[in-house]
Amino acid sequence: MLNVAAVQQDVLAKISSLELEVQEVYSTLVLPHWGGELHGFPYTLYGYMMTCFARIDLLSAHWQGNDKSQTPRMINFMDKYISPNREANNVAVQMWRHKLMHTSEPRFLIEQTTGKVYKWLLHWYEHLPADQHYIIVDTPDSKILNIGLIYLIGDIKKGLEKYLADLTSSTRLQNNYERFQSALESSTFRIH
Predict the structure, then answer these.
(1) CA–CA separation, 48 vs 123, rounded Å?
(2) Contact 144, 119 (CB under 8 A)
(3) Distances (CA, A) of 91 to 123, 150, 170, 173
(4) CA gap 94, 53 in Å, rounded
């Protein structure tokens, strides 16, 4: 039987550790170099974005009980636990999970029916006001997803707490968690 309390402790400790590390990097490295040659530490910021979306991927796989159908699984998990903004969730997963992971940086996405280009505005934190975080700004030729990394980590943390509450009370979710955890722990090496 799943030890839900141990799962809660583990996953909350990991997201809290990420949050603490990001805040430390932001205050001790990013801000002192603001406006200089290392302005914004963009590759560090991208790495943390990749970590956030990898965490959402992992949580959604535990939630679903497998790692199949990655994009819809992640979006559905985000819709339920992180943000009801399905358009933003779609853009975020495609841009910050897939494009970033596979091409080393986020890429514009073209909406095929309108020709509008999805872009991003990414900040570490307070240079983007909290009320502008995780919204899409519509312009005549583009849609811009605003994200503040530290706000996003807070969103993931709140979503995680909701998921853990559901996990505590749902045998189905506990079975899903155990099934995927078992698959994770038995990953095999394949020669290609």
Answers:
(1) 12
(2) yes
(3) 17, 19, 30, 27
(4) 10
As a whole number of angstroms, the distance between CA 134 and CA 61 comes to 23
Q: How many CA atoms lie within 13 A of 105 on its CB side?
A: 7
Which structure tokens are listed for 103? 């091409």
Tell me which residue of 148, 182, 186, 170 sits closest to 4, measured CA to CA: 170
Per-residue pLDDT tens digits for 38-87: 999 999 999 999 999 999 999 999 999 999 999 999 999 999 999 999 99
Domain ranges of the chain: 4-25+40-177
pLDDT at 1 over 90: no
Q: Which of 120, 70, 61 is nearest to 91 (CA)?
A: 120
- Cα–Cα distances in angstroms (integers) from residue 14 to residues 6, 19, 125, 175, in the given order: 12, 9, 20, 22
Supply the pTM of this predicted model: 0.94
